[in-house]
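HUMAN: Now follow C-alpha cell order:
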Amino acid sequence: MLTSTYAFSGLGVSDLTAAKHFYGGQLGLELEEDMGGLRMQLPGGQSLFVYYSPAFSAAGYTVLNFQVPDIDAAVQELTDAGIQLERYEGMQFDELGISRGKATSQGPDIAWFRDPAGNVLSVLEP
C-alpha cells in the first residue's frame, strides 16, 4: 500500500517566519509555501516539509545533514552568512569548528549548527 505513494519528511519549528529567513535567506535553499508550511527543496531532488509546531521541542540529535564536496568552503559560507557552529564538549574541533574525523578514522569531517528553532543540522564531507 505505502510503496506506491509519495513520501516526505517533516521538520517542526517554533517560528515559521524565522525558519523561512534561515533556510531560504541564510542557507539559500529554495522554499515554497505549501499546506500552511514551507516545502524546502533539498540538494539531490528531495524535499522536506517545514511546519510550525505549537508543542515544538528541538531534538538533541542531528535532523538534517548536507553532504558537501569541500567542508572548509561550506563552513566558510555558513560563517559568512552569520551562522554559528556548535562545538560539543569532549570532541576536538579545528579553528574553523570542524571535527576532523577522517584524519583519525572516526567518521567524516563534520561541522554542526542549529536553525533558529534549535534543530541540529550538519555539513559533512565523507
About this structure: The longest strand covers residues 47-52. The chain has two helices and nine strands.
